[in-house]
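Bit of a strange request maybe. I'm writing a small parser for structure token strings and I need a real example to test against, not something I typed by hand. Could someone generate the tokens for this chain?
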Amino acid sequence: MEASGTRTGVRVEVAGSGRANVTTGVPVLDHLLGLLARRAGFDVALEVAPGSAGTELAAAGRGLGEALHPLLRAAEAAGFGAGIAPAEEALATVALELSERPLLASNVDFSRERVGGLEGDMVSQLLRQLADGAGLTLHVRLVEGQDRQHVLEAIFKALGTALGQACRAVPRKE
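Reply from user aminoacidic:
Good idea to test on real output. This should exercise your parser:
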């Protein structure tokens, strides 16, 4: 798969056990995507060809979104979900649903932050690419939190919970 001009390999199994084999070249991102997989109950294999950190993050977000796109649109999938998650003092919520006009709406400003090699706008870019690739309206809200590592962990945990709900089968009334 090609994503944002960078070779990306992605496989997502919705009915998984929460295992992640992620190699993006950015260790903190690998950790965050592992948290997402565990919370979602997905098995995720993701590999991004080396490049600049920004290119790798955009490719990871786009690749993951494109892998989730058909799973979110399966006839039995809910297509929407919400999650709330803590990480130490941080608390974040994420709500999402399928959309023909994907977008990211967030109250989190990382523009001047740097965490483990991730500059803030890179995190926003990853989330935007995920929303675009999967075709989602994605709302991310930080309720509380000062430590940026904890804030990111809370966001990715909540995102995993929301994605897990959105991909799960829901009973349909006949």
